[in-house]
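USER: Note each token:
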Amino acid sequence: MKNMIKLSIQAFVMLIAIAIFSASCTDNNDLIGLNIQPPGEELKYFVTDTFSVFAYSVREDSVKTDKLGLSLLGSMFDPVFGKTTASIYTELRLTSLQLNFGEGAVIDSIILKMAYVGVYGDSSTMQTFRVYEMTENIDIDSSYYSNKITAYGSQIGFEQIIPPVDSIPVDTIKIAPSLRIPLNDGGILAEKLLSGTSDDYSSNEKFREFFKGIYITADPVDEVGKGALLTYNLISDATTITVYYHNFEKDSLKYNFTISNASGRYGHYYHYGYADAEESLRQQIISGDTTLGSNKIYLQPLGGVKTYLRFPTITSLGTDISINEAKLILTDNDPSAGFTQPPRLSIGKLTDDKGKTTILDDQFEGETYFGGYYKDSEYTFRLSRYVQDRILNKDAEDFGLTLLVPAASSVPHRVVLNGTNTDAGKIRLVITYTKL
């Protein structure tokens, strides 16, 4: 018992000694290293944002749009970017094999229903939607881009409507919003489906040979500031092509065709050559006037517009410095324009003069560090490693950076930013560095 008490007392004394030692070490932490650097030669840091920035906007060729989970449809007339129309090409799938409409079958109606997700633009604008039968197959294993056109033939559907963005009543019951387009123009689709043989409906492979799919588009909106691009979920269970029919035996029959991940599908985006865009944008992306980037630069997804950036004078800092931080700050030219800004932008390093881009080393530091998020009417990126590399390798060929809207295949948000030489809020590269 006495030995146990003795051990406990010794342990207690040891804990007190360790605590006192730790406290003394903590008190002297701030003194470590002060005697290493000679007096008067402490390292100093400097901050500068006087570097020239060269920026201008160019047209994007196209974006990959096949096999997307969400699809855009509709037309809008942006007062800055002009008209844009989003269309959809897609195959249909059988929900059961060996489809048989029965003896004496008559198709009463066919309705395309697409599950609504969101809207960008003026949701109150009346739009005209058209559906056509495709005459060329989509290859599920191939890549498709936003400028691709697949052959199509007869119009099989038409609807002029303000697209629903809130719950809609169907037979007095409110259901989730969806776009409903009748596919009964001239009875063309009904006649086609009824002409199918048992072999045509024996498998999805046979069916896609018999019926290649549908092309869904919208008429261009002609009034400035009107129209909208709507997002629909094609692979939702709520997206169907429902055939209502009867035969000699039964009334009120129906059959659903669907769109699934196994369906070939892609989005097509058309910007009408930017014929109706504002002049400064047209002069940059059509006429190639790179000097106008001093006033405004433009970013539009959907195979629209991106911007190139270069910092030609950062190598003037010399090689005997260490970059603590380099921040690129971009300011919204018109935060109250009425169009929701992209919540985030993307920036990459150009590797040639053809526009090929790779990820910046700074991005590997983590998305929170790298930045690019919209906050207080600004986008801010940290490019510290990029700037340090440019300084250390000043003789290496520099193709600059490319700035664009991420997820450009299905996100419609666009933004106009101040240029390199505006009175306020110009593009700035703010560098904090230490002389070695």
